[in-house]
């Protein structure tokens, strides 16, 4: 059963029906063109988008912002909350493009940032094109002058958020971040970036409750979905991932005092040529954090390097590793109906903390092979059980 707190409210369903192409002109209250936006991309439309938001935010009624077809050159924007309107619907049918100079966005944390908002829906078939390749090339050159880069779409300390049908293309850094939010519904989104693009996580969730991510395609250079501390009641279903680093809880144990991750369901996923499939990762350092109540159900692996993995000695590139012992407590993790192919001999790897062994790990109906032959499993400091068919043979 899905989380009842994340179901799409009836009012949003009604709005989706109302927003047919034949009715847009009748119900559009705030069209960005009326605020001076240029649909040819020839001049900067940043101020026009902000004026449209301020007009909608300052209206007591439910409001609607429309971005029609076209190309809109837009720089970094922060949309602040405390609005009079309890519901703001933003429909994007055009393409929003970043400035050619990657430094314009790159020096900001976010491109489109929504802060302390409530009842905001972003819908349509539009695209955010962050033009990330030029910044990625700068980073690949090992230049010290490269900015960190911006997240394309960020929601912070916000409630009752809906994102439906959009495309995020070539983000400089993370594509979508959900941070400190409640009741978020994301569906039908497409995320696209090169497999070697650095730190371009598809969707990152942290410090948030009651989040649904459904029917979404993610092709990127880092985690397709990353799940940070303080995530509770997260439902992920019908996700295709690849290229990318899989779906990851963590990395955790960045800090000694860290909130836990609990009640996470990942269901009906397909991983193609990814670095990882279903992964939990933590640094080998003290922490009071935890992971519990996770269900990985019905996943297909296609040539995945690490289909099933718990790594409590996480240290990418083996640089500046803490070389301590992970304090993260991992308990009650279920892998059910996982099948497909591993591109490496070890298809199941549980490398857990010798101070806090992984407990309550369950494998059920798992069938993973390597080059059309038997794969292997590896277990360290893990307690659990295997039920029904489990291949490779479980070391639990």
TrEMBL record:
Keywords linked to the UniProt accession: Cell wall, Cell wall biogenesis/degradation, Glycosidase, Hydrolase, Secreted, Signal
Gene3D superfamilies in the record: Single-stranded right-handed beta-helix, Pectin lyase-like
Note the superkingdom of the native organism: Eukaryota
Q: Which reaction does it catalyse?
A: (1,4-alpha-D-galacturonosyl)n+m + H2O = (1,4-alpha-D-galacturonosyl)n + (1,4-alpha-D-galacturonosyl)m
| Signal sequence, start to end | 1-26
Q: Which GO terms describe its biological process?
A: carbohydrate metabolic process; cell wall organization
The enzyme class is hydrolase
Function (record text): May function in the depolymerization of the pectin in its walls during pollen tube elongation, or in that of the pistil during pollination.
Q: Which family does it belong to?
A: Belongs to the glycosyl hydrolase 28 family.
- Name listed for the protein in its UniProt record: Polygalacturonase
């Amino acid at each position: 059963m899905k989380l009842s707190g994340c179901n799409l409210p009836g009012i949003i369903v009604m709005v989706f029906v109302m927003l047919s192409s034949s009715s847009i002109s009748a119900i559009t209250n705030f069209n960005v063109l009326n605020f001076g936006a240029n649909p040819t991309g020839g001049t900067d439309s940043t101020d026009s988008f902000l004026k449209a938001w301020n007009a909608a935010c300052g209206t007591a009624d439910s409001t609607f912002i429309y971005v029609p077809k076209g190309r809109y050159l837009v720089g970094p924007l922060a949309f602040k909350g405390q609005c009079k309107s309890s519901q703001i619907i933003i429909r994007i049918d055009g393409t929003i493009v970043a400035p050619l100079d990657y430094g314009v966005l790159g020096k900001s944390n976010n491109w489109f940032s929504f802060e302390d908002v409530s009842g905001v829906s972003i819908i349509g078939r539009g695209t955010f094109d962050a033009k990330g390749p030029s910044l990625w090339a700068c980073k690949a050159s090992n230049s010290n002058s490269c900015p960190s880069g911006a997240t394309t779409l960020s929601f912070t300390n916000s409630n009752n958020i809906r994102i439906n049908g959009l495309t995020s293309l070539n983000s400089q850094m993370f594509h979508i971040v959900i941070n400190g939010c409640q009741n978020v519904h994301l569906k039908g989104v497409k995320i696209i970036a090169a497999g070697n693009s650095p730190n371009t996580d598809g969707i990152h969730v942290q410090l948030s409750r009651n989040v649904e991510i459904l029917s979404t395609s993610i092709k990127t250079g880092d985690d397709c979905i990353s799940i940070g501390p303080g995530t509770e009641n997260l439902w992920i279903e019908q996700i295709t991932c690849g290229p990318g680093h899989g779906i990851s809880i963590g990395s955790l144990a960045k800090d000694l005092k860290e909130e836990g991750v609990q009640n996470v369901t990942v269901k009906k996923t397909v991983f193609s040529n990814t670095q990882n499939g279903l992964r939990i990762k933590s640094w080998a350092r003290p922490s009071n954090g935890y992971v519990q109540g996770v269900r990985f159900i019905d996943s297909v692996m296609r040539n995945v390097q690490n289909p099933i993995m718990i790594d409590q000695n996480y240290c990418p590139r083996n640089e500046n590793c803490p070389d301590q012992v992970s304090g993260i407590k991992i308990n009650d993790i279920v892998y059910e109906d996982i099948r497909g192919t591993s591109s490496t001999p070890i298809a199941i790897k549980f490398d857990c903390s010798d101070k806090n062994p992984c407990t309550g790990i369950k494998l059920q109906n798992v069938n993973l092979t390597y080059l059309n032959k038997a794969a292997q499993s590896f277990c360290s400091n893990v307690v659990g059980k295997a039920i029904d068919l489990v291949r490779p043979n479980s070391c639990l």
